[in-house]
Amino acid sequence: MSEQEALSEALGEQAVDVLDTAEAGRRVMVGGAVRVTGFVVGVGASVVAAAFVTRHLGTADYGRYQSVVALVTIVQFLTDLGMETLGLREYSQRDGAARERFMRVLLGLRLFLTTLGVGVMALVAYAIGYDSQMILGAAVMGVGILVAVMAGTVAIPLAAGLRLKWVTALDLTRQIVTAVLSIALVAAGAGIVGFLAVPIPAYLVVLAGALMLVHGTVRLSPVVDRRAWLALVRPAITFALATATGAVYVYAAQVLTELVASHHEAGLFGASFRVYIILASVPGILVTSAFPLLSRAARDDHARLAYATQRLFEGTAVLGGAALVGCVLGAAPVIAVVAGPQFDGAADVLRIQGVALALTFVIATWGFTLLAMHRHRQMIAANLVALAVSATTVLILARSHGAQGAAFGTLLGELTLSTGYVIGLSRADPRMRPGLRRAWRMLPALALALACGLLPVPDAVATVLGLAVYGAGVLLLGALPDEVRERLPAPLDRVGLVVRDAR
Fold this sequence. Notes:
Elements: H1 3-10, H2 23-80, H3 83-93, H4 96-127, H5 132-154, H6 156-160, H7 164-187, H8 192-196, H9 199-214, H10 226-260, H11 263-300, H12 302-338, H13 346-372, H14 376-428, H15 437-451, H16 459-476, H17 482-485, H18 490-502
């Protein structure tokens, strides 16, 4: 029992939920930073492993591997109904016994739906003409997804309680285990099936850790109750459509490229797509850390929600600009490290997807705010339009322009989705309309940073210079949210204050 809980019990009062306190904001900011730091360390391990895997499999087999991953991910999103994110929102908006009952029903339903999805994955792989190794790999990866679903559900109380350091530790452990096993499989000369089986042991480790950390918080034995499942599924359908379609159109680009372009072009797109997906996880991590707070504010205080959403938008916009600079200037060295010289053509693909990535960062903030407000229909409409635009573009351009054409499909999809989300927020509550005052300030810094690519220096040097110029520009121009600037080291904070006062 914590000191706060013990004191509350002594006073005969109910312990205060951290989500209802001013402490929540600090935990979100610090915990979000910790989660991103842990993610960066994990990505370092993943990049090392990816460098071994891509060289081991080659362009054709790596394209097959990534196509299976994309297909399994799509089917997972469609069968899981977005239950993990739904669970985090509902857990944050419920109290007491209602929380525990909800979690037990949720776990039982997710296990059932995911088991069903494993069979669907293999059938879909067979129906679209995958070879026997790809079909087996889809089934094996499906088992890994089942374990991941269990681990994710069990860890919901950790995230809702803003115990983000433990969430970070579990995720970092998973990434390191995945990297170590992948390198071991390369040494053993494994094929794509072996690599697709890696999630099974990695998520078993996470599941064991999560069970120990939440022990005593809520009882998490699954409930098999058809009526309770139906009661949960009905509102979850619109939630699922809102969340799944957004992921489907991104991963669909890889699947469609494999179908209409050559294996070589699909492999090039797969290498760039791997980098894109890794970097696109950063805004998801940040905003997911804040999602319990957004959910509670959406229930109780829209003024607090508008404030939090605006600050998240400003922060993710700055990070999205950094991602754009890194991908545009550093595409060649990044692909060389991640995939090797046989994937040189993927650098131009990554530059295009780097522009899309800048939009991905702010889309995460707007999307999770709409979810917190239960604005599922607006999200569904925006995602379906984005899916149609992206899929049509990929089918047309990937056939004629290969991987670069498919990358344009990703860019147009993100542009369409960001526009739809802003419209949805504005119609839901005018206070949620994003303010652009700080965002405009980062544009000169972005332009100067990209200009470093014109310098007669190696790409790696130009990338470091560009990121340094961008960081200095963002600070000097006052583009950082005050809450972030105040937590910078003292010398940098003083620079920001001087500039702000001068303005």
